[in-house]
Write a structure and sequence with these properties.
- It contains 15 helices and 13 strands.
- With about 400 residues, it is an alpha/beta fold.
- An 8-stranded mixed beta sheet has the order 4-3-2-5-1-6-7-8, sandwiched between helices. The protein has a 5-stranded mixed beta sheet with strand order 9-10-13-11-12.
- Strand 9 and strand 10 form a beta hairpin.
- Helix 3 packs across helix 9 and helix 7 packs parallel to helix 8.
- The radius of gyration is 21 Å and the shape is globular.
Length: about 400
């Protein structure tokens, strides 16, 4: 597909991925410039902004489903994607049209060639998402932070309501070496005078930081109870995420009824979170749990669904995720273990993982081979450790439509 007077979708995506060499760059200046360049003015649209360590994507999915159930046109911005880049930018939960993305990326590329510093991958993607949502007529926009909050490029967008999911240690090299320091970064998305909602199970150090930040900005703070109704995303821990989303809806400018909330919660779905599929007759659960807290929730959900049945685990990890800690949490449900290579620059190889894990591991260099080895055990299969691996396995299983991907996801 051709962009207007410019790049095809494949060319535009290749150009966008070329900006990854800039790396992670925290700060808002370039994003503000991009939003101004693209004439992005959300006007009276309702914008939900979600930060936290675990549950951000699921909370955003609940918010989107409820708003769509209420008849609103939605824009949903999340990361990373699992199979197709277009999953990051959804309108009414459908991946954004490739032609639209190519046109906007062509415009961005032509305008920023002389910028110094040059915008990063995520800065460009954030602006791309917002322009796509406005062009697509989105009335309710849901933004998931990429990393942290305060300096994340999504924070350049003025939000109507902010939500903060459970906070734990993650990305310490970027966000700080304590829960309190990480919470300061996450709480940086709170906007002056605008409501902020957090979960009732929040770590107390994090809760104190959020309270103090909200008070300093005159932002009404709401503590969300767990959700007691039916949820379309599996797992007991999702009741906290659903409760957060429900309270964010309640304190927003939108007029959404309780029955619309109930229906939206029940219909919500989010790929890669206890996502059930099948491989050659064996059940496959795909869950992108990549830190200890997420793995603990995964173990609880597995036991609730499978009882004492062990799992044949296909496992992958990136280098900064301390795989031994994850595997220790997963040990009560581990029946067999097949470490595999993640096709990303930060991904550990199957052999490197096996060396760390020990003799119990049977390394498989590819996700497809790991699946076959796991299937031979006759145990239900669990794919976990990384959203990158979740995406690779979903592609092997034929889920979704893969884009032309010039480099890592």
């Amino acid at each position: 597909m051709d962009g207007a007077n410019g790049m095809t979708y494949e060319e535009s995506l290749a150009w966008l991925y070329s900006t990854q060499q800039i790396g992670i760059k925290l700060g808002l200046d370039n994003t503000h410039r991009l939003l101004e360049l693209l004439e992005i003015d959300p006007g009276d649209r309702t914008i939900f902004h979600v930060a936290g360590t675990n549950g951000k994507g699921s909370t955003c999915a609940f918010l989107e489903s409820v708003c769509r159930e209420a008849g609103l046109k939605t824009g949903l911005f999340t990361s990373p994607h699992l199979v197709s880049f277009r999953e990051r930018i959804r309108i009414d939960f459908e991946p954004a049209p490739a032609e639209t993305l190519a046109q906007i990326l062509t415009r961005i590329r032509d305008e920023i060639q002389t910028w110094d510093p040059h915008p990063s991958f995520f800065e460009i993607t954030t602006a791309l998402g917002m322009r796509t949502f406005l062009d697509g007529g989105a009335e309710a926009i849901i933004l998931e932070t990429g990393l942290g909050g305060r300096l994340d490029s999504t924070n350049a967008v003025a939000s109507s309501v902010t939500g903060i999911t459970s906070i734990s240690l993650d990305h310490q090299q970027w966000l700080g070496d304590s829960i309190a320091k990480i919470a300061e970064e996450k709480a940086g998305i709170i906007k002056a005078g605008k409501p902020v909602v957090t979960v009732s199970s929040q770590d107390e150090d994090a809760a104190q930081v959020i309270r103090e930040r909200a008070e300093s900005l005159g932002s009404p703070l709401h503590i969300a109870p767990v959700y007691s109704g039916e949820t379309g995303i599996c797992g007991e821990h999702q009741t906290a995420n659903a409760g957060l989303a429900a309270r964010m809806i309640e304190v927003s400018p939108l007029n959404i009824s309780a029955s619309e909330v109930e229906r939206g919660m029940a219909k919500a779905m989010w790929p890669g979170r206890f996502h059930r599929l099948e491989f050659q007759g064996s059940p496959v659960i795909i869950d992108g749990a990549h830190n200890a807290e997420a793995a603990e929730a995964l173990v609880r959900t597995w036991k609730a669904e499978f009882g004492d049945q062990k799992a044949a685990i296909v496992f992958g990890a990136v280098a900064d995720k301390e795989p031994q800690k994850l595997l220790k949490v997963l040990s009560p449900i581990t029946g067999a273990l097949f470490p595999t290579t993640i096709a990303t620059q930060r991904g550990m190889t199957a052999d490197d993982l096996a060396k760390q894990i020990g003799e119990s591991a049977q390394p498989a260099p590819s996700a497809s081979l790991a699946l076959r080895l796991a299937q031979a055990t006759q145990l239900p299969i669990l794919v976990t450790g990384s959203f990158f691996l979740a995406g690779q396995v979903l592609e092997v299983l034929g889920w979704g439509n893969a884009d032309f991907e010039p480099s890592e996801q």
